[in-house]
Amino acid sequence: MARTATTTPGNAARVLRIVHEGGPVSRAELTRRTGLNRSTVLALVGELVEQGLVHEELPTAGGSGSERPAGVGRPSAIVRAAPDVVAAAVTVEIDAVGVALVALDGTVRDRLVEPQTTVPGAADAVDAVARVLRTLTDRAPSLRVVGVGVAVPGIVRVEDGVVRDAPHLGWRDEPFAGPLAERLGLPVRAANDANLGAWAERLYGSARGVDDLVYLNGGASGIGGGIVSAGRPFSGADGYAGELGHTFVAANGIRCHCGAVGCLETEASRGALTAVTGTAPDDLDALATALADGRDTVERVVDRQVAALATAIRNAIHTVDPEVVVLGGFLAVLLGHVGDRVEDDVRAQTMAAMTDRLRIVPAALGRDVLVRGAAELGFADLLRDGTLRSTGVPASVGGPTSAGASVTTTTDTHETTADRDDAVEEARSA
Asked: Quick one: angle between helices 369-378 and 193-204, nearest 10?
């Protein structure tokens, strides 16, 4: 029989977020972090255990989490997030559609990428996600899928998941979260990929715990940017903030698809680096090896790209004053090749007081950065409510939604204007 709730709504979500974001933690530590009394924490953990969202275990001898006064009582139980409750993290690129199943405990349980022979349209991407997700869930039927998060290389209206402009995909004003939710029978949220990458690096990567950061990622669809300010995703009025790939860096530069001249993503591009090095577009390890050879023709391209990148970072610093700048994708490879040169060039053209604490670092999450960020979207409802509403993938995946299937998109008639903030923020809101 289901347990009758005896705790304040929202506190279960607080506990679940702590365990999800921070990893295994003792009940004693949960009591300290939440400021709740021990009996309340015990009840909250019990509710989460009953739903299968967390598990408890006694700490091993000498292990962490055994907080207690010497000789008093039993060691505090360790609370772990469930490894079988997962979010489907979707990434859409010009040449591939990928889906990963990311568990509440942070492990990537499985992943599959479906290469695309042509740039996928929105309907094509919905079909591809349905196929891939069905394959993944067939391989692991015991996993409970609670939601879907989609990382899109473009401008996304976060309250309804409409892709306003994804130029490299050729999408403009394309509904995506809604049709995908109807197809899957699962809650679906979509957001800009770099915004998700910034949040993932803040939660789990190179900028863990940093409240003010800028993230720049270089990939097949150009350069995306994301900003975290005062510990919150900086999304702007409609969720479009952070388009740092289109910051101005060169007066005599290349004309960009956005209509401007000298945008960062035209002056520093993966395509230019892979062309001069002769490496495959998606092989960053090969790119790093080729850059290490130090050929003159390659270094001339590197010099131009480093200059453009340093100017873009300077612009970002003067605008948002970050403590950390995180570089992902091919930009991380470029940083690894030139070492301190990027930071030195930035400091040389930036107001000195604004670089006192500045660090420019490579992304720590590697290929998982967008996956982890998209998974946070997939967990948004669960982490907001602390309640498991539905699990599993309906039989309708791969075909039209069957009668009676539960469909949820990012649009709710009772939402307020606060819901226009980046949907990532909901994943950690009490």
From this structure: 90
Mind listing the pLDDT tens digit for each residue in 130-144? 999 999 999 999 999
pTM of the model: 0.82
Give strand pairing partners of 56: 79
Element (H, E) at 332: helix 330-338
Select the highest-mean-pLDDT range: 2-6, 52-56, 384-388, 402-406: 52-56
> Bridge-partner residues for 101, per DSSP?
88, 110
The SS3 call for residue 340 is coil
Q: Is there a contact between 308 and 222 (Cβ–Cβ < 8 Å)?
A: no
CA atoms within 13 A of residue 64's CA, in its CB half-sphere = 7
Question: Sheet of 359-362: strands edge to edge?
Answer: 232-233, 222-229, 213-219, 324-329, 359-362
Helix (H) or strand (E) holding 324: strand 324-329
- Rounded Cα–Cα distance for residues 195 and 254 (Å): 25
Please state whether beta strands 162-166 and 155-157 pair in parallel, antiparallel, or not at all (unpaired).
antiparallel
| Those residues with Cβ within 8 angstroms of residue 225's Cβ, 6 or more apart along the chain or in another chain | 194, 198, 214, 215, 216, 217, 242, 243, 244, 245, 247, 316
